[in-house]
């Protein structure tokens, strides 16, 4: 039995990864920050199978303790301040967690169990103002947010510890990946939640920012499998994980509404653009400038050919199914809210 330590275990990726590792017979440890009210988040349903350790990415002593307790063979660092918009509001906290926090975890591994294998959750946001399309492991980085900059430090410090100390340390440069467990502050879940509420008559319309932003969207469940595969190789390396497809936010909106039988008809341009329910003429999508980024990332499109060839990684959930899963799940959740409110 292998021991695995997951930071950020209560998040979307952490929960799917915990499920995967438990299925493979791992003893799973998860790091949680101490709060006044315990919140198991997305691992509520498997909390009895996980060994939780209180620690914090900004406190290296607590991470050393976590390594001593878990004696982890594999460490998956998924903890982050991961909402891009918040990184402009909290740039120092973002750097403390997403940049220095990675160094803290690497130091804890180097101090306690240097033979442990380490996975760092890097991000396509590091490409930012893209220097090539599509983006691969050799594409130059140009981050456009405090989040992207902090993650770039985490990416390079992981590579540096691999080359300086011989640690098995690798980074997965993951492009946008979503799921039914995504937080509502993220645009994809904001869309699917709003679609459900509009369909069920409890919300009037959806407000969004840049409708022309292009992203490479996959499902989190597929992507955590790639994380595991990276730590099973003979040598550590870095890999882009992506779908090799890109779609605009506008397309995501259209497909999401389509799953509940609503066809969106667009009119206007820029901030004056609106989307109407074609059948009723009701405005269901509006543009709100408050949701525009200070520095925009226009297009992200990943080339995952290295991972597909070297790791044998296969994506199983196509884009249309991803959106459908999210919409149908939110339809159930909102319907339940409505029923509870009637009681």
Secondary-structure content class: alpha/beta
Which sheet architecture does the biggest sheet show? Answer: 7 strands, parallel
CATH-derived topology of the largest domain = Rossmann fold
Strands ordered across the widest β-sheet: 3-2-1-4-5-6-11
Q: What percentage of the residues does DSSP assign to strands (E)? A: 15-25%
- Assigned CATH superfamily of the largest domain: NAD(P)-binding Rossmann-like Domain
Question: Overview of this structure, please?
Answer:
Belongs to the NAD(P)-dependent epimerase/dehydratase family. GDP-mannose 4,6-dehydratase subfamily. The protein has helices spanning 12-23, 60-70, 84-89, 91-112, 146-165, 187-199, 220-230, 249-258, 305-310, 319-342, and strands spanning 3-7, 27-32, 51-54, 74-77, 117-123, 168-174, 177-178, 206-208, 214-215, 218-219, 239-241, 247-248, 264-267, 274-277, 283-287. Helix 4 (91-112) packs parallel to helix 5, helix 6 crosses helix 10 and helix 8 crosses helix 10 (319-342). Helices cover 39% and strands 17% of the residues. Strand 14 (274-277) and strand 15 (283-287) form a beta hairpin. It folds into two domains: 3-178 and 217-241, NAD(P)-binding Rossmann-like Domain (Rossmann fold, 3-Layer(aba) Sandwich); 187-215 and 247-296 and 318-342, UDP-galactose 4-epimerase, domain 1 (Alpha-Beta Complex). It has ten helices and 15 strands. The strands form four sheets. It has a seven-stranded parallel sheet with strand order 3-2-1-4-5-6-11, with helices on both faces. It is globular and about 65 Å long. It has 343 residues and is α/β, with parallel strands linked by helices.
